[in-house]
Amino acid sequence: MPRVFHDKSPQVNQSLFNPEWVYGLMSPTAPHVNKQLIWHTYSGQAYGMFHGDLDFYFGGWDGRDRMATIDTNRCPVYLLTGEYDWSNTPAMSKATAEKIKGNVQFKSMPGLGHFPATEKPTVFTGYLLEAVEWIRKVRK
Does 4 score more than 70 pLDDT? Predict the structure, then answer.
């Protein structure tokens, strides 16, 4: 995914631009009050904070070519990805999981986006507990 740089422009109000951009990463079925919490979180960041994150995400460390070297006996891997997360789609996570050998699981989370713990906490908790339980079983 190409990096968008107009968020760095001094002519763009980051307090409005950033939360509107991440709003699109959320599930359309998430309760409005939960979406507002995420929007508010991103609207209150200092100038440059969010695009610093994006610079790392789009151009920082890239471990895709190292996936096969993960020792999943020591560190099992369980990937959870929300259906509406366009920045890291379920297909992308599945492709990553397929590069990892051994104790790895991938699960798409229907009805959730990039911020599942805030969008729908009770739904996400079920996925999280399932992942933790799987990791506990694999590590025994």
Answer: no
What's the rounded Cα separation, in Å, for the pair 52 and 30? 27
pLDDT at 43 over 80: yes
Tell me the one-letter amino acid at 13: N
d(CA 124, CA 106): 15
Give me the count of residues in the chain: 140
Q: Output the CA–CA distances (angstroms, integers) from residue 56 to 17, 61, 73, 110, 117, in the order listed.
A: 19, 7, 29, 27, 23
The whole-number average pLDDT for the span 44-54 is 76
Handedness of CA 91, 113, 25, 28 (dihedral sign): positive
> How many angstroms separate the Cα of 9 from the Cα of each of 23, 25, 71?
20, 22, 42
Contacts of 3 (CB under 8 A, 6+ apart): 54, 55, 58, 59
Give buried/exposed letters for 69-92 (b at 16+ CB in 10 A, else e). Answer: ebeeeeebbbbbbbebbeebbbeb
